[in-house]
Amino acid sequence: MSGRRQPPGDVPASVSTSCHHMNNPAKHRGMISQSGTECWTARAVLMLIVMLAAACGSSERTMLPAEADHPNVVAAFGEEVLTLEEFERQYARSTGSAGTAAGDSLAEYRDFLERYVNFRLKVAAATEAGIPDQPSVREELGSYRARLARPYLLDQEVIDPIVRQIYDRRRQLVDVSHVLFRVPPQVSDADTLEVYRRLQAVRDSIVRGADFGVLAARHSEDPSASGEPGAPGYRGRLGYFTGGSLVEPFETFAYTTPVGEVSPIFRTQFGYHFLNVHDRRPAVPQIRVSHIMVRPEPTTRDSARVRTLLEGLKSEIDEGGDFAELAREHSQDQQSAGQGGDIGFVAYAAQLPEAFREAAFAIEDVGDAAGPVETPFGFHLIRLTERAEPPTFEESYEELKALASRLPRTGAAEEELAREILAQPGVHVDTARVVDAFAGMSPDSAWSVLTAGSLPESVLADTFFVIGDTSFAIRHLADLDGRGLAASSVDTESFIRQVVGAFVTQKAIDLEALRLEDRDPDFRRLMQEFRDGLVLFEFMEDSVWARAEQDSAALRAYYDERSESYRWPERTRVISLQSASDSLLDDAVNRLDAGLGMAELSVSLTEDSTAGLRIDTTLIADSTYAVYDRALELREGERTAVLPHQGTYIVLMNDGKEPPRTKTFEEARSAVVSAYQEVVEERLIERLRRRYAARTFPERLVHAHRNEKVNSAGSSQSASP
Fold it and tell me: What is the pTM of this model?
């Protein structure tokens, strides 16, 4: 394998030539890779040759910009300067945070400064060579932007605020009851108003002092309100929950209505609700618990017997008895008894019997047990086995983002973003024009006609949506993904309005994504860094990696001067016989045991084209952490038994030692290419530093991340006793 396409060692971590690591102050958003471009046009190669020739000639720049004398400048090259603030930003991105960067040494700052300047010099040379204007580079940059812009915009404007809201709400638990009156999807305004008035009458009664639970059981159309006592939802009592558990706006009213008060009436997709907030308390971390559960017979005497049994087990546990063994012996919970009673981590807001939850979360010390506790399932002994640490926002981000993407509130927030965009000047939507175009058709027929493009050309070309300088005709509606459109359950006008609404929302966000560089400095910086990495990759591919690999004479000379450094250590020759048939392998082994030599066996297999057995020789210097290591345990000439191996069967034989020796040029070529690439790159950097008159001022780095260091020192002092 050659050494081509290795990322250059002096590229900082925040800008890689093979991938771009997208960072955010709160989290790593992920990684988007780019493959680079395999081929160069003749014009690009010529431009690079001209650039490299110029670097070696008389075009070196000896003048530095006047700003280089400023104490806040840490490097200068060509007509550019690198300020301390920019250095701090880049360094913090490479370490993950400014706090981490502040803990690094001055030597580490200086090393990064030199590598970052090398990176900027190569980007400058690539830009001067015209690489950014290469069609392949422009195409890849545009493709990257197209993949990134819309998700980035939605993350910033839709997902991230919801994730933050859920995280903040999860720091509190809220206990509520509610009453629900359902509103069918297809119902008149008059009927909707009637539902609202009936619910208002129930709410008024509760506000005047009527019992919430009684009226919830009598009137609420949530089936759980009239369920079994103690079950979630009984008499309207939902119990404790936290952010992301229930729909908006139910969750918002639960978190904003004062404790002890009744909320206004509000509507969700389920109908009209009002709720009563019983309690709001700080969230507690999840705990891991085990339990022993015994179900008594439905008699007072048996309940007393079970309680006495568990009290005895509790005493035994308190004196050092093995909870897990006792759970396996006595617990009647079939799911957990085999695991020693372990039921894993549970949250306070989980659907647990109230008595079980309160007893479990009241245990103070890990390893302690509580009980007996009675629930509708029986009597329990509960042991606290672990207490989780509450996750930070960064630790929670990916989980909460996945949750947010599934919640209806995210779709609503996306629509709200589109409405804000559409409220800007220069936007016009004529939905009535589209409705008229499909008058007299059924919803299914309207969609079929639209996607087939079978309307008259004058209708298809009719403009119905204008946003800024962009306009859309009726024919463009066919580009909309029809999944999720309720064509069979609504009238034609409602369906067409649904289509137009979905299309306008999508296009408004798409067009807003095109403006990201103007509205978002972080995105503009992100695109610039990807562009720099992309052009640098192309530059390095031609001027270093390919050049080093293709210069056979230089590679041979480099190898000849250092051949003794490329050596094979002593290695064990391992002969393997492998087949999908264990009987075929047994036959081969028997023939070897009968005196047939390995060479003769190999010849016979070669002559027999139907034989499904393969013989290979592998040289092993040290453990491979694979089946071949079995041969290292054998003496020379010994073999293993038939072994199963990756769905086949294998026999291994130790065939002796291969003495150490110098690698041939071809054997060492990959390592030689890799090492010679570094030489070529060092020479390139020397030329570029001369050409752009690059200077660094490492002594000025003593001020780097000073604010973070001061804040850190202050925090440490304030925390001292």
Answer: 0.68
